Amino acid sequence: MDFESVFASRTSRMKASEIRELLKLLDRPGLISFAGGIPDASYFPAKQFGAAYQEALTAETAGTALQYSISEGYTPLRRWLAKEMAKLGVTCTEDNIMITSGSQQALDYLGKMLLSPGDTALINWPTYLGALGAFNAYEPRYDKLTVNGNRSAADISAAAQAEGGRVKFAYLSADFANPTGETVDRRGRENLIDMAEELECVIIEDAAYQSLRYDGEVVPPILALEIERKGSIEECRTIYCGSFSKTLSPGLRIGWICAAQPLVSQMVLLKQAGDLHVSTVNQMAISKVAETHFDTHVSTLHKVYSERRDAMLQALEEMMPKGVQWTKPEGGMFVWLTLPAHIDASELFKVALETENVAFVPGHAFFADGSGKNTMRLSFSCADAETIREGVRRLSKVVQEAL
Ligand code: PMP
Fold this sequence. Notes:
Strand order of the largest sheet: 2-8-7-6-5-3-4
Number of domains: 2
Number of strands: 13
Largest sheet: 7 strands, mixed
Shape: globular
Radius of gyration: 21 Å
CATH topology of the largest domain: Aspartate Aminotransferase, domain 2
Oligomer: single chain
Helix content: 40-55%
Strand content: 5-15%
Bound molecules: 4'-deoxy-4'-aminopyridoxal-5'-phosphate
């Protein structure tokens, strides 16, 4: 049977991730990999989770822990999150919060909620690959998001209409973005709110890395800036997507959205239709660990990851040949390299793997239009400083030879 003939048209843009295919090649002895974008597993708070699961499964609470529960999510966790959001300037209650299965699910449901085929999604060039994967299923048109105010809302809107849809949202990761490591400053965030107002679209603020700031000036979330203007979250068009994946554990699959209640209510309907709710026992465990250990755990991560970032930036400075540029992230897990235009990073990947046993992610997969051939993403989260130095030495050699 020709299976593809029965697939819905929305699957036509879903393709196997090139990155996942590349990552399959990385099981080699002695390899130094800057390719993964994941937390260092040796820092997971495993002991605290052990105790939290045990507590959740005691006689008094096991019935709740193992039972179905509400789609909005575990109420004590939502209350704790509402307090954390308030510390960031997002005054809200638990009714503004819904728990999701990682922020990835929030991106999928937001695509489902907002995009009809042909509608426009404004995204960065490059953008988080998983966001493209989530949105692609809803058949959008993509247009370039700029936050420096140099493109008029009227032009953006006209281009969307010419394609038979309208601009539904602007999606961005404003803090230490995946893949670039860059942060949008306060003025950029204010410009974005202005533009979204003119376009009458929503803003999806992907805050997956927001807790991982190592230095530099703290910039309030876009949602906090919008609340400053409007006085209440209920007047705001920003949907904040948070996640515990980069702080406590990605394996538990717990994230949240925080937004005006009508937006949350609609998302709750999608959650009901999708998978009813996030695992109750996982929510109870993360709630306990977050309440008792979140701040101390995150400060440990700051120390570990900032040392690794410093090691990577210093090694790049010392060893990378002239003509290569890179970002200087104030947090997160990524440094983004731009090579001279004639170098194709996918070709370089093969050479780097074969000759020097070092890996990275070629950047063009992060571009909706497949451009960015001379770019690459390096992650510093999973290697110690010495390994990072050796990895950058190997990589610099390969780049030098390609010049
Ligand atoms: N957003 C960004 C920018 C990410 O990098 C990731 C994971 N790599 C996610 C969302 C999804 O993370 P999760 O579903 O684990 O919360």
